[in-house]
Amino acid sequence: MYKEQFKYWQTGKKTRIYFGISRVQKNQPVIVLLHGLASNLSRWSEFIQNNQLIENFDLLRIDLRGHGHSVFRGDINHKLWCEDIAAILADENYTQVIMIGHSLGAQTALHFAALQTKFSLLDF
């Protein structure tokens, strides 16, 4: 059964990044779902409830900084979003990652793949 826990990750400043996470079992790769520009993590609600990924993978969906519940007033860019994603993945003890993005989320996933070296990026 799919159970998702919603959390905030504190950036160390006043910004908090909101995300939802579901875990299948320990030592699983995580699928990170990234939304588009005019959206938030709810973009993926119907998707995760209507597929079988939740049976075999941990799922992480994030309100990118400046979107949804991740309120932020300031400049945002792919590098900053990638740093947020990497910090959340590290805090949640993930090393193997599958990135899925919609629109802006797809661009962010590509930047993440280019910038991050401490995570194994998988395909399926």
Describe the global form.
Answer: globular
Q: Biggest sheet, open or closed, and with what strands and sense?
A: 6 strands, mixed
Through-space gap between termini = 22 Å
Number of helices in the DSSP assignment:
4
Strand content: 25-35%
Instruction: Please provide the count of β strands.
Output: 6
Structural class: alpha/beta
Strands side by side in the biggest sheet? 1-2-4-3-5-6
Radius of gyration: 13 Å
State the share of residues found in helices, binned by percent: 25-40%
- Average pLDDT reading: 91
Layout of helices and strands:
Blueprint lengths: L4 E6 L5 E7 L7 E5 L10 H5 L3 H4 L1 E5 L15 H14 L4 E6 L2 H12 L4 E2 L3
Parallel strand pairs: 3-4, 3-5, 5-6
Antiparallel strand pairs: 1-2, 2-4
Molecular structure report:
The protein has 124 residues and is an alpha/beta fold. Helices cover 28% and strands 25% of the residues. The chain has helices at residues 45-49, 53-56, 78-91, 104-115, and strands at residues 5-10, 16-22, 30-34, 58-62, 96-101, 120-121. The protein has a six-stranded mixed beta sheet. Helix 3 (78-91) packs across helix 4. The longest helix is centred in the C-terminal third of the chain and has 14 residues, at 78-91. The chain is globular and about 40 Å long. The two termini are 22 Å apart.
